[in-house]
Backbone:
């Protein structure tokens, strides 16, 4: 499985930690930046990761900014992207099971690396349930 990974400057440290975590778990990682803590604009990285999903260069995306809010807003503007800001593993589980989220968004300034790894692990291990949730996802797609 290939994961597109992106962050702004506030999420850089967590992105780097997660990159190592993912590689150690045998995921292929497409690092879309940023590559330092120098100030950048988060929408640029949301776009890169979203495009990787849309163009099937990656199976899932992970985006990180300070709170996760900006990345969530930016990524969800892109057709076909269902980005979910998750602060707890249960949120990640339900984002996959019920919403078929294809991008996980994390708050780099609000959670530890250990919690982030747990959230990522849960997100990537769950599968969309479909069923009654499929109709809801379809309605979201019709809004795009």
Residues:
């Amino acid at each position: 499985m290939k994961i597109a990974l992106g962050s702004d400057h506030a999420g850089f440290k967590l992105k780097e930690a997660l990159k190592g975590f993912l590689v150690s778990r045998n995921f292929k990682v497409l690092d879309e930046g940023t590559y330092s803590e120098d100030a950048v604009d988060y929408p640029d990285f949301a776009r890169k990761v979203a495009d990787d999903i849309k163009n099937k260069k990656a199976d899932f995306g992970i985006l990180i900014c300070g709170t996760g809010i900006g990345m969530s807003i930016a990524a969800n503007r892109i057709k076909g992207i269902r980005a979910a800001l998750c602060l707890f593993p249960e949120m990640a589980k339900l984002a996959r099971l019920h919403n078929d989220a294809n991008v996980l968004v994390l708050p780099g300034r609000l959670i530890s690396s250990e919690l982030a790894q747990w959230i990522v692990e849960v997100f990537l291990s769950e599968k969309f349930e479909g069923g009654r949730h499929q109709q809801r996802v379809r309605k979201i797609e019709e809004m795009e």
